Amino acid sequence: MVRGLPASVLLGLMGCLSSVARDVLWSAEPPAARACHLVDGREESLRIVRLESDWTLQGESPSGKVTRKPSEWFSWGAYRPAMAGHHVLLTDGSQWVGQVLAVSQSWVVVSSQLWGTLRIPRKYVCAIVVSPPLPWAARDAIWRELLERASERDRVLLQDDDAWDGELRLEASLPSRLPLYWPGVSFAIDGGQVVQLEARRIRAIRFAGPAAGEATGTSGVVAFRDGTRCRVREAELDGSRVRLELASGWQVSGESERFLPGIAYLRSPPIGWRVLEEERIRDRRHVPMLTRKIEPRWGRSVLGSRLKVADSEYGWGVGVLGRSRLVVDVPSEARVLAGAAGVDDRALEAGSVIFRVYVMERGGEWRLAAESPRLRGGDEPWRFGVDV
Asked: What are phi and psi of 140, to 5 degrees?
């Protein structure tokens, strides 16, 4: 059970999540040490040296060289979403950040500082966001519309908030010489009229197809400092070389001195740990009115936007109001309940919060297992690991 003190504050409970790091400069220097979270609830400072294909993590800590088996760790670093550049959203929920140069029936060509010029097979692309809105709520609303809803027809969202449904008229092959800037697309609207849409008029394009899957389960996550976030089945990082097999099946590899220092966040597949999924939440109530249940969306704040604490974004967890109570059923085989709790960045002026974690064994009484310091919006999340 987790309780916060003041009312009208957006809170986020995020089970098994990483720490926060603020790091925005690019360089080819060795990666900085960041927090690595272990499945037993401990945290250690670790500089990555190598990630093996079986998710064994090798690094250097203040005490020397460290090797962490995939059953020992679940995350390293922190993910910060990019607010600029084009975002190519893939069918498995991954997103690639860069500059779109061309789109054909078979390929989407993206140029990025880290990967250079990259050809992404069109069959793996769900949508392209040309101009992400700066307000968080507006950006999250577009992401939900593009990723979480199936579309029977191609759809174009324009800068003036208008939306057209129709058919994209894409060339069968890429141009022999790629342009410096993407010119836009031809679009056939109802009635057969074909219009040429310049890229500057487009906010986003949604290709016809099913909703994108949030490929969790056996997949892990590799995210880079430019905002690119990949849901992967298998990953290998070794010096200047990187190889990723995404959850969609697409494989990409490259070699650059920037890859290793460009890594911002790693999350291993659930091998020695598991996420407390939404069905494990047995009760959630607003403390002053315990007769009224709160039904927030899993992975969202109470307003429906992504969970965002201390400028970092989290994919798992649940947003609740201030003075709320969550009761979760922990699997009997679990040894440690590890998590993070913080005040949503959109509640900077909404007061302070204290989180408390209580544990109750079968037939026993609630006992206080952990208590946070007083937290406000913008503070780093409080992390805990309690013996269950």
From this structure: -65, -35
